[in-house]
Amino acid sequence: MSQMQDSSQLYMRFLHLAQSVKALPGIPNIDATEEKLLNLFATAWFVGKNIGVMDAVEMVEGISPRTVHRRMKTLRAKGLISLNSDHSGTKKYVVPTALTDQYFSELGKCLVKAQEG
C-alpha cells in the first residue's frame, strides 16, 4: 500500500472513531457549523490567540455573521464555550471550557486509536 493510501486509511479510521465521540455521555450533539466553529476556535486557542466575539464572527468564511453569532450562542448553551470579559468589561472573549477540553481529548484518543490500527 502506498503512503497516500496509508494516510487515507488512517484518516478514514479516525473519522469512523470520531463519530463515536458524539455518542459519549456528557458530550452534547453539535451540528456541522458548530463543529467548524469549535475547530476554528481550537486552532486559535492552540497558538495562544485570544478570540474576541467580533473577531469570531468575522473568522468564518462562507457563513453569515448572524449564523455564526447564533451558533456561538448554542455552543455556549451546550457548555462548549464561555465568554469572558476583559478587565475593563468592554470586550468579550470566546474561551474553551472543561467540556471543550474533554471533547478534544476524546478526539485525540480517536487519533491515537486510528494510528494503532
What does the secondary structure layout of this molecule look like, with pairings?
Blueprint: H1 3-21, H2 32-46, E1 51-52, H3 53-58, H4 65-77, E2 81-85, E3 92-96, H5 98-116
Antiparallel strand pairs: 1-3, 2-3
Helix pairs in contact: 1-5, 2-4
Task: Outline the structure in words.
It contains five helices and three strands, in the order ααβααββα. The longest helix has 19 residues, at 3-21. It has 117 residues and is mainly α. Helices cover 62% and strands 10% of the residues. The model has no long low-confidence stretch (mean pLDDT 91). A three-stranded antiparallel β-sheet has the order 1-3-2.
* CATH-level-4 superfamily name: Winged helix-like DNA-binding domain superfamily/Winged helix DNA-binding domain
The gross shape turns out to be elongated
**H/E topology pattern:** HHEHHEEH
- pLDDT < 50 stretches: none
* Mean of all residue-level pLDDT scores: 91
Helix content range of the residues, please?
Answer: 55-70%
**CATH fold-level assignment:** Arc Repressor Mutant, subunit A
Give the strand line-up of the largest sheet: 1-3-2
The CATH class assignment is Mainly Alpha
The biggest beta sheet reads: 3 strands, antiparallel
Q: Report the strand count.
A: 3
Ends distance? 14 Å
* CATH architect. name: Orthogonal Bundle
